[in-house]
Specification:
Layout: E1 5-6, E2 12-15, E3 18-21, H1 29-51, H2 55-72, H3 84-100
Antiparallel strand pairs: 1-2, 2-3
Organism: Nocardiopsis codii
Protein name: Biopolymer transporter Tol
Length: 104
């Protein structure tokens, strides 16, 4: 799959004409893979919860989506405004929280 178009400053990707914050480019590949795996699992769980009309499961799944996206640097304080230590703390904390909330 080709890489999405990026803005000149590298902070955003452009998909179908819409700008989205890019993931933190300093993420180690292993952390990126773990966070993306958690994100995809959580998104599947949101769909399952919606189909089964389970608001508590939906709430938990959506919180996992938010943690994964924050760990990737796509939500929260923009990654380009954080120090290297703060960026590392963010993805480590997201992975810790996600490990505590593994999907059933």
């Amino acid at each position: 799959m080709p890489e999405p178009e990026r803005t000149a400053d590298g902070r955003y990707v452009v998909i179908r004409g819409r700008r989205w914050r890019a993931s933190d480019p300093t993420l180690p590949e292993s952390a990126r893979e773990d966070l993306v795996g958690h994100l995809m699992s959580a998104r599947r769980d949101v769909g399952t919860a919606l189909r089964s009309r389970d608001p508590e499961a939906e709430r938990l799944a959506r919180s996992r989506v938010a943690w994964a996206k924050e760990g990737l640097g796509e939500r929260g304080t923009p990654w380009w405004e954080l120090t290297g230590d703060a960026r590392r703390h963010r993805w480590e904390e997201a992975l810790r929280r996600l490990a505590e909330q593994r999907s059933p």
